[in-house]
Amino acid sequence: MNVTKFRWPIRVYYEDTDAGGVVYHANYLKFFERARTEWLRALGFEQDRLRDEHGLVFVVHDMNLRFHQPARFNDQLVVTCDVRQARGASMTFHQEILAADQDTRLCDAGLTVACIDNRAFRPRPIPKMIRAEMQHAR
C-alpha cells in the first residue's frame, strides 16, 4: 500500500536547537511524530478519540534514522509521511525532513508503527475505518 505522500510544514524554533545552533538530533523524532499525528488528523482521526472511543493507540516499534544535513534555528522545513505498507496490526512508514524548497533532504527515517490495545498493550488489527481512509487518500 503506497498512500499519497503527506507533507507538513514546520519552522525550527530556538528550543529545538543545541548549543551549536542546529536542531538537536532527538528533536527530529518529534518532527516525525508531529507529521504522523497530522497525517492521521488529515484522514479524520484524532489520537485521543481513537484511544478513548476505540481503545487503541499507535506506538513506534522500530525506527532507523539517517542524517544528511543539519537544520538550523528559524529554518522552514517540510516533514513528509509516506505509508509504504499496512498489514495486520502494523504500518511501515518512510519519512523525510526537507528544506522548505523540498530540494534538500536533511534527515530520513524508516519506521514501523504498531496498533495496540491501550489497556492490554497487545497488538490489534488496524481498524477498517482507518484502512478505508488510507485507501481513499491515494
Automatic annotation (TrEMBL):
One of its GO terms (molecular function) is fatty acyl-CoA hydrolase activity. Keywords: Hydrolase. SUPFAM superfamilies: Thioesterase/thiol ester dehydrase-isomerase. InterPro entries: 4-hydroxybenzoyl-CoA_TE, HB-CoA_thioesterase_AS, HotDog_dom_sf, Thioestr_dom, Tol-Pal_acyl-CoA_thioesterase, YbgC/YbaW. Pfam families: 4HBT (PF03061). Residues 20-103 form the Thioesterase domain. Belongs to the 4-hydroxybenzoyl-CoA thioesterase family. PANTHER family: 4-HYDROXYBENZOYL-COA THIOESTERASE FAMILY MEMBER, ACYL-COA THIOESTER HYDROLASE YBGC. NCBIfam families: thio_ybgC, YbgC/FadM family acyl-CoA thioesterase. This is Acyl-CoA thioester hydrolase. It comes from Aquisalimonas asiatica. The lineage of its organism: Bacteria, Pseudomonadati, Pseudomonadota, Gammaproteobacteria, Chromatiales.
